[in-house]
Amino acid sequence: MREYETVIGLEVHCELATKTKIFCGCTTEFGGEPNTHVCPVCAGMPGTLPVLNKQVVAYALSAGVALNCDITQYCKFDRKNYFYPDLPKAYQISQLYLPICRNGHVDIEVDGVKKSIGIHEIHMEEDAGKLIHDEWEDCTIVDYNRCGVPLIEIVSEPDMRSADEVIAYLEKLRMILQYLGVSDCKMQEGSLRADINLSVREAGSDKLGTRTEMKNMNSFKAIARAIEGEMNRQIELLEDGKSVTQETRRWDDNKCASYAMRSKEDAQDYRYFPDPDLPPVSISDAWLERVKAAQPEMRDAKLARYVEEYGLTEHDAAILTESRKMADIFEAAAAICKKPKEVSNWLIVDTMRLLKVHEMDAADLKFSPDHLAKLIELIDAGTINRPTARDVFEKVFAENVDPEAYVESNGLKIEADDGALKGVIEGIVAANPQSVADYHAGKKKAIGFLVGQTMKAMKGKADPGTVNKILAEILNQ
């Protein structure tokens, strides 16, 4: 069998984090009852006129600057015409001829090898509605709430050669967009989704093969499986002497197979023409400079600073900076309690564990940095011990409770009366002569059982260090 090379380019659709839609005042909030976030403009009623949301342009500029693009300071909107139930106007307002950003790149690293992935363009456009296929009723219904939600479409060059490179590119892209604050990039809500353009060719050839497109992929795992599946499908066709048809395909992740949907349209099939209702967008030098000046500290710079300023390991700094939300909590809590390594430990160990348990993303964290700092201060002051602190943190994580008030109202403070604690320990020692005998016989681990019994008797409201100290004194008398 001949050797083949896979050639992949992506079209990534990213919903922007504006409060209102791109051409009207309807909310962009996710969810809601079907067809309730709709007005005559985004529903495509005759006689309505679009008005451009300026924040959409600002977000697109910010993304373009961060992705090393050339900015088109005089750009236009065009109409992309097609008839489909989720598009009430029968056209989509997009940008074909003068997109806002061109010629950028994203740098990735896979298995220690660095590579630059070119970005052909970024353009602004409106989202379509959502079709819902009801298998029980054997019908399709449409929800127009998403119609008019602002998007940027990031079109890469066909520079990727494997699923690993695609995932590395998407992860880097998502991280940059989240750091900028232009999108929450929640793939499960459709805020970030990708169309995969894939072809194969004989290794060593510089001629591109016939490509297919798989649309609206919103899971990294599904994307990786779809790439492997489509690559193998195309190679099997070529090995059998058949040709690959240029078409749009649907990936069924449950069956790990793709199915033809329609022949792939070219630009002329959409009959693009400049939108007559929207004037050109003119981006001044001053506006562009303001956007550049407002760019946040990005992950690479933040990671290096955490190692230098806070004395963290590169491994810990990498985990904290993977999400801007996590990094923001870390910096704010460290500034309050002045214990950056303690804050780092609580985020890397306990927070990451709870995120996994609750199947959450770091961007969904709700607890305040102030409450995490308070919890650390309660431990440092000896008000609560670490096992109790971990229980309290679960409440902080889930409900953002004030740990100080929670400890007080639930009677979780450590018993500070050493005399009372000593009396409890003496009772434990008297009730467990075998453990005492084991300890005196050289089985030092026996003290652990006695510590556990004491903590149980104290309902966790004792300092393990103090318990160990008093136990040792009594046992060694």
From TrEMBL:
<dbReference type="InterPro" id="IPR018027">
    <property type="entry name" value="Asn/Gln_amidotransferase"/>
</dbReference>
<keyword id="KW-0648">Protein biosynthesis</keyword>
<dbReference type="InterPro" id="IPR017959">
    <property type="entry name" value="Asn/Gln-tRNA_amidoTrfase_suB/E"/>
</dbReference>
<dbReference type="Pfam" id="PF02934">
    <property type="entry name" value="GatB_N"/>
</dbReference>
<protein>
    <recommendedName>
        <fullName>Aspartyl/glutamyl-tRNA(Asn/Gln) amidotransferase subunit B</fullName>
        <ecNumber>6.3.5.-</ecNumber>
    </recommendedName>
</protein>
<dbReference type="Pfam" id="PF02637">
    <property type="entry name" value="GatB_Yqey"/>
</dbReference>
<dbReference type="InterPro" id="IPR042114">
    <property type="entry name" value="GatB_C_1"/>
</dbReference>
<dbReference type="InterPro" id="IPR004413">
    <property type="entry name" value="GatB"/>
</dbReference>
<comment type="similarity">
    <text>Belongs to the GatB/GatE family. GatB subfamily.</text>
</comment>
<comment type="subunit">
    <text>Heterotrimer of A, B and C subunits.</text>
</comment>
<comment type="function">
    <text>Allows the formation of correctly charged Asn-tRNA(Asn) or Gln-tRNA(Gln) through the transamidation of misacylated Asp-tRNA(Asn) or Glu-tRNA(Gln) in organisms which lack either or both of asparaginyl-tRNA or glutaminyl-tRNA synthetases. The reaction takes place in the presence of glutamine and ATP through an activated phospho-Asp-tRNA(Asn) or phospho-Glu-tRNA(Gln).</text>
</comment>
<dbReference type="InterPro" id="IPR006075">
    <property type="entry name" value="Asn/Gln-tRNA_Trfase_suB/E_cat"/>
</dbReference>
<keyword id="KW-0547">Nucleotide-binding</keyword>
<dbReference type="InterPro" id="IPR023168">
    <property type="entry name" value="GatB_Yqey_C_2"/>
</dbReference>
<dbReference type="InterPro" id="IPR017958">
    <property type="entry name" value="Gln-tRNA_amidoTrfase_suB_CS"/>
</dbReference>
<dbReference type="InterPro" id="IPR003789">
    <property type="entry name" value="Asn/Gln_tRNA_amidoTrase-B-like"/>
</dbReference>
<feature type="domain" description="Asn/Gln amidotransferase">
    <location>
        <begin position="328"/>
        <end position="475"/>
    </location>
</feature>
<keyword id="KW-0067">ATP-binding</keyword>
<keyword id="KW-0436">Ligase</keyword>
<dbReference type="InterPro" id="IPR014746">
    <property type="entry name" value="Gln_synth/guanido_kin_cat_dom"/>
</dbReference>
